[in-house]
Specification:
The structure is a homotetramer. Chain A is an alpha/beta fold. The first copy, chain A, has two domains: about 5-85, Alpha-Beta Plaits (2-Layer Sandwich), CATH 3.30.70; about 90-280, Rossmann fold. Chain A contains eight helices and 13 strands. In chain A, strands 7-6-5-8-9-10-11 form a seven-stranded mixed beta sheet. Chain A has a four-stranded antiparallel beta sheet with strand order 2-3-1-4, with helices on one face. The interface of A and D includes residues 41 and 281 of A.
Chain lengths: ~280, ~280, ~280, ~280
């Protein structure tokens, strides 16, 4: 079933829900899901509606224009419209660790993720056989201080050439440059192996061990210019005990990382995430 | 701020959200929260809307009638309307264990629960001092096989005389009769000390220990005729290990029980629960 | 590093810890981990000790005999001795669902599981390509009422021929016969897709949906004659909401299943599980 | 049943477990619980043993000396010995929020905590009635910049005069001075309303809201000179969603705070906590 997804944002006001739902009703849109949220802090209203395209009276290319005329302009709405088809195209960036890659490919393989994976990029060769076994092109871009800018330029070229919609850093151990990030706003998902904002940066499990925390975590977030500071999409945790070594934390944490990252991808694919300032609304 | 809460249920159909939200808009209702849910299993649509009464154009007593005429009848809706004021009146039933009672009275004392507690009923005297310290009337009804019907009759009289809206069994160790339950449909909340439907009935921690489970739980549910089988409102769990004795399970479990029960009370007070068959919708 | 693991069980008595630890000390055993547990219910004492073999004064084949003479017989101990090398040999049984299989193979691939996987057996062909990609032999045994006994006989032959130490049912949708189970006591690990003892048997997610639970779970247990009633090794849960469909529960649950099953395998590989009656001690 | 609890720390070495357990065995000590831990990081060995005093051959006052002679000196052990009787004496410090206070008093009342509470100290009068209802002396010490040193001096006097063994800051909104803390090393337990080390300092729920975290937490720790940086005893978390306001976080968080703080008190009372550097071992 093909669907359209509309997300709107505007100053909170009476009559918005009525106006949007009336628009869908008048144009024969069968609503599958609708969710709204009022941010009392800033006084903004947010709404996400998903409806069937089949029976809808307005053709895809005209929906946004007609909606703006009939509803959006009146409330000074920011609108974004997307469709569940064709499938979004996701690029994976990996280094040496395989747990997140396997988890993603497993869901891709079983059909849980409605996504195309045109390519996997890595700064190491280690995971090439895994990727090839799934029939996905693998590109090796060794990165060092000298060639980083040049390699990123080539990577971006490759992403554009493959019509990549969003990027997932599945334990990619390189920091992307400001320029790279700027090309994919709110479209690069990273998994950080700590419960942010605790333990930003490198070796968070070592830092967690040293601090003696009783719970460790993982955080999926959109990448922004500032390291590990982008909008958080999903987090989860696991309990640890004093006798767990750093190596134990790494292993326990990996089980959290992969599930958290895959949940974030799922939300992103379903267009359920709206970034507001440095926070995310997860429509559900 | 005084608010009205409307919950409607009907066959799913196009235009319902538009009709309800338009009704509120036309009558100057400032929406505070609206949530809807489509039950694909039975094809029913559910909606909960809460709005400010102050500015609303229709007086309290007329809302339900006008809504039925203008919207409800068209969609053959079942409607229920309530208000957040005056505060609901809650009766507590307890036996000897104090953890749930303390937790509820603590929230009542700090203003977290917007509720009146006109009385506490118990089949034992143990908790009388606790209840009196909070300035709440305490009634002692010793119960045995012979006097049970008679005692329940008196308890019901007391509840009616105190305009009690709903009853909370805070680890009350007696089974209420079918007649008693019938007088308070979806208005008696019980906390069962297991993760239902596992370990129905008496001594669930002993049963959990014997079965060797690695996680125990607690379940808050509406009381129905069948023991521990009513609609589940909230559940939570705690991890246990092989070296935990039955006494440990009891103590670990109590921390879960009291939080789960208080969450259920909070949902009930906010009119966020809709019972459908033997399931609950928790609007949020 | 090669290690020996000794697990003893006997009536609780003074001096046991002293006797066992003195035995290891006198024979130059460098203890890596020691854990004990007194079961107050039955009055039994349990102890697990793991130590380095390199420097130990007694050769592998003699340890059990010498220990019995010097310590075990005095306390009427039941003893079991094992070694972390050579790696145990694990057979996987699967049907059509791939999430547990991928999770296990991913850990096998990354070296997290110190195990050999000589073969995978399935009643369907679906997962053959996945298994082959990992270079593991795949055997197809279609099963129906008529051929079940015969197929099990052949499967057992294959297991024996491959020196299989233990079997993991990674969402294998067939019930093993009493005879099959009898051949591998406490050596067949199953993952059941519910929080046992709730929802025994087929279609637990459907049953969970129908009962309206707010939390679902998964249980890894040793297979015994009685369906889903064997000793529980590990459990975990995930929160669900009223708007989750049965399909949602299936998907949410799969993330729990795979992590729970892999934890159980990890405990089994490390010889950290002792079955007592129908419960498990997990030494840690 | 009266018990003795011995905790030892020394460089890891062969024969320690044997020596300690042999000492207890020879002197007729019936072991109730024994647990050990090797810290691979620093190469230290830790052991906690609890045994019955009744039948023990050495009188209380002599145990430490005899143990040192027969075992401790040989391994250069640091030893600490304590007894479960008489009950430890705990002072509570509170400000205005009642949830932790109620939770502690509820457990005290039901006998879950084996402790004496000779007094409660507060910088506000709000919770005086609650404390008085439990028959516990309440002392009011208003604190400002000018009188802080003087008030702390009086508080310390009061604590000494009441033979207080340890202090619990149950949401006490004042920072204790370095001198005060120095008088009770590893004996002042604080509950911080965040998942440390995230959100150190004031208003952590506001900071958590602003950062957009999906999980909030609470941390019980020993107070040291550096704010919110002492050894962590226990932590737990709760899930939050985008629509939760700061006030929601406060309320959700309070349920976590009170359970975490009470767990920490329970461990402290049972002498199950050993501080090593800035980490804690929780024997179990």
């Amino acid at each position: 079933m093909q669907t359209a997804i509309l997300i709107v944002q505007c100053k909170d006001n009476k009559g918005i829900v009525a106006a949007v739902s009336d628009f869908l009703y008048r144009n024969n849109g069968n609503i599958i899901e609708v969710d709204q949220y009022i941010d009392d802090e800033v006084g903004d209203f947010f709404m996400r509606a998903e409806w069937e395209l089949d029976t809808f009276n307005i053709v895809k290319d005209e929906i946004l224009r007609v909606f703006a005329e009939e509803v959006g302009n009146r409330f000074k709405m920011k609108c974004s419209l997307s469709f569940n088809y064709p499938k979004p195209r996701m690029a994976l960036f990996v280094s040496k660790l395989s747990h997140c890659l396997f988890d993603i490919l497993s869901r891709y393989h079983s059909g849980q993720f409605q996504v195309e994976i045109p390519l996997v990029i890595s700064n190491h060769m280690d995971l090439r056989p895994v990727v090839k076994a799934f029939g996905i092109p693998f590109y090796h871009f060794p990165v060092n201080k000298e060639n980083k800018a040049e390699q990123e330029r080539k990577q971006l070229e490759l992403l554009k050439g493959n019509q990549v919609d969003f990027v997932v850093l599945a334990r990619y151990m390189q920091i992307l440059s400001r320029d790279f990030v700027g090309d994919y706003p709110n479209s690069i998902i990273n998994i950080h192996h700590s419960f942010l904002p605790a333990f930003v940066g490198a070796k968070p499990y070592h830092a967690a061990y040293k601090r003696g925390v009783k719970i460790i975590g993982a955080t999926a977030h959109y990448v922004t210019e500032e390291l590990d500071a982008g909008p958080i999409i999903e987090q989860d945790v696991a309990r640890v005990r004093h006798h767990n070594t750093v190596e134990d934390l790494v292993q326990i944490g990996q089980d959290v990382e992969k599930v958290v990252l895959s949940k974030a991808i799922k939300y992103h694919l379903a267009k359920k995430i709206q970034v507001v300032g440095n926070r995310t609304i997860i429509f559900n």
